Structure formats: C-alpha cells, structure tokens
Amino acid sequence: MASDLEQLCSHVNEKIGNIKKTLSLRNCGQEPTLKTILNKIGDEIIVVNELLNKLELEIQYQEQTNSSLKYMKSRLTYCKINEVIKEINKAVISKYKILHQPKKSMNSVARNLYHRFIDEETKDTKGHYFIVEADIKEFTTLKVDKKFHMLLNILRHCRRLSEVRGGGLTRYVIT
C-alpha cells in the first residue's frame, strides 16, 4: 500500500512539474526576442516532420520493391545479375562508339553495323540509348535465352530498362 501511495505521489509531482514547465515556457513565448526563436524552432520541427514522413514513404516503397524482387530473382544471384548488366553496358558502349565514329574511318563491317543501327532507330528511341538482341549477340558473350529474358524482366521491373516494340524488333531502352 505504501508503494502505491509513493507511486501516486510521484506521478502527481511529475504532473505538477510538467505544468510548471509549460507555464514557464508560455511566459517565455510572450517575450518578443524569445517568440521569434520559438517560431523558428516550430518551423524547423515542421520541416523535420515532413522529411520524416517522406523518409517513411521511401522506406515503404523500398520494402515493397525488395519483397517483389525476391520472387523475380528466383535462382539468380546478384553477382550474375550484375555480370549481365556489365555485358549490356559493354554492348551499349560498343554500339554507340560505332555510331559516333566518323563514317570515313569505318571499315565495311562497321559501316554495315552503322546502317543497321540507324535503321533500328524509331521516333520513340530518338535521343535515348537502346540495344536490340542482335547487339547483345554481336558485342557480348551472353546467350539470349530464357534466363536472359528473365534478367531483362528484372531490369524492367527495377526501371533500368524499358521496351519499345515495333517493326518486328524489341528495343531495350536504357533508363
């Protein structure tokens, strides 16, 4: 019984202390010099609260993306996915190296590739880097098989690639 009374007394004293602090802060808020400082602190608290809300939304989005990628990843390792990304980057670099090369310095093979690249471009891909399966076969050692297409689906899901279809070709646009 004595401990309950002590706890109740402690609780009441804590409440009284909180009321005293609130009253003293209220009195501080009436002083013009402190009022501007308190307003600035209030504004900063609002900004921090907004940032925390944005951070919470981003964390939720990342958790959803992470959970949706776990069924997509299947038996592929991150290492394998990264290797494919490096190979795709190699194909893009090789393709656009030919496209930016002066025509006079090209041999016949490079000139034929150049004309193929120009023919593959559409109004949807204009100004964007893109590759087609023929570029993968030409510039990399990757096999264009079911596993490769599964990797492309993962990259599309992560918004690293997008597909533009037309003219019997699927163009993979780098985003």
TrEMBL record:
This is SKA complex subunit 1. Gene3D superfamilies: Ska1 microtubule binding domain-like (1.10.10.1890). The lineage of its organism: Eukaryota, Metazoa, Chordata, Craniata, Vertebrata. It comes from the Eukaryota. PANTHER family: SPINDLE AND KINETOCHORE-ASSOCIATED PROTEIN 1. Keywords: Cell cycle, Cell division, Centromere, Chromosome, Coiled coil, Cytoplasm, Cytoskeleton, Kinetochore, Microtubule, Mitosis, Phosphoprotein. Coiled coil: none annotated. One of its GO terms (molecular function) is microtubule binding. One of its GO terms (cellular component) is outer kinetochore. It is found in: Chromosome, Centromere, Kinetochore; Cytoplasm, Cytoskeleton, Microtubule organizing center, Centrosome; Cytoplasm, Cytoskeleton, Spindle. GO terms for biological process: cell division; establishment of localization in cell; establishment of organelle localization; mitotic cell cycle; nuclear chromosome segregation; nuclear division; regulation of microtubule polymerization or depolymerization. Component of the SKA complex, composed of SKA1, SKA2 and SKA3. The SKA complex is a homodimer organized around a central W-shaped coiled-coil structure, formed by the interacting domains of SKA1, SKA2, and SKA3, each end of the 'W' is extended further by the C-terminal microtubule-binding domains of SKA1 and SKA3; the complex forms extended structures on microtubules. Interacts (via SXLP motif) with MAPRE1 (via C-terminus); the interaction is direct and stabilizes the kinetochore-microtubule attachment of the SKA1 complex. Belongs to the SKA1 family. Its main location: nucleus.
